[in-house]
Amino acid sequence: MADRIQQIHAINKMNISQIEKSKMIFQLLNPKKESKIHKPPHCHHYSRKYYLIANCCKKAYGCRFCHNDNEDHTLNRKDTKQMKCTLCLCVFDINKKSCQNSECYNYLKPESYFCDICNLWFSDKDRNLVRLDSQLICEISKVKECYHCDKCGICRVGRQKDYKHCDHCNLCLHINSFDTHNCVKNVKDEDCPICLNNIWDSHGNPHVMKCGHTVHLQCFNKYLNENNYQCPLCKKSMIDMTMYWKMIDSHLENQQVPEDSEYSKWKTEIHCNDCLVKNTVKYDFVYHKCPNCSGYNTVVDNIIKK
């Protein structure tokens, strides 16, 4: 405040007209606020030619995930009315589907995939098809295939002919696993038990495990790489553990409890997470094998000391 008063005194001492002094004092007391220009952040989720204009805040973003990460509210992409070209920055109605500026490189070039129902568009390429195309003489389409499922209410990655919708689970499953999958009612509405984010409202691909619970495929792979093999919810084995159980068998053949020790007479009451059968087995310091399924995914209920 003291600095501002000194500046006003300095302006009054200037050899200029009273009108000019008044303008300078007014500008000093009322500084112009620099308007922040919204610049859409780079989208790491999709490869796109066009931004979406959020109907809620009228800002341009690469996708709804980018919007939700940077704003204090969520975006309903079905309410999107306008798109914005990433090159010439022209804005146009979403039903046009492509840039309307004739001088722009994107002029009348729609995205490789566009869903009118979800208002979802992208030009992502399938990595496997890109690799295959590099080995072939004839060029093939490298666009990531996607389709809209009316029953799921969302777009699904993959070829529609490879998937079938389960009305009980309320999701699409690959035809190879459809007849053998474990049905869990409305599994589509569940959250990923690993990252705790919604499974179907995120960019990650869903993965249905042997037990019927669903996680993000990325979370599933990371979980396994961290040496976790049990489902976070039911504790059943997420993958075929037969080879690992055989390794434990070989280890126990060389590391048995000494017969002359007090532990050799102990028994252990266990229950198996995989087959859900309870048994009483010989005590071991670490591993307890289920006699029913020959697995080691067991939990100690009680130790019987004799």
UniProtKB/TrEMBL annotation:
PROSITE patterns: ZF_CHY, ZF_CTCHY, ZF_RING_2. The keyword Nucleotide-binding does not apply. GO terms for cellular component: nucleus. It holds the Pfam family zinc_ribbon_6. InterPro entries: RCHY1_zinc-ribbon, Znf_CHY, Znf_CHY_sf, Znf_CTCHY, Znf_CTCHY_sf, Znf_RING, Znf_RING/FYVE/PHD. Residues 192-235 form the RING-type domain. SUPFAM superfamilies: CHY zinc finger-like, RING/U-box, Zinc hairpin stack. One of its GO terms (biological process) is protein ubiquitination. Residues 110-191 form the CTCHY-type domain. Residues 36-106 form the CHY-type domain. One of its GO terms (molecular function) is zinc ion binding. Keywords: Metal-binding, Zinc, Zinc-finger. This is Zinc-ribbon. It comes from seawater metagenome.
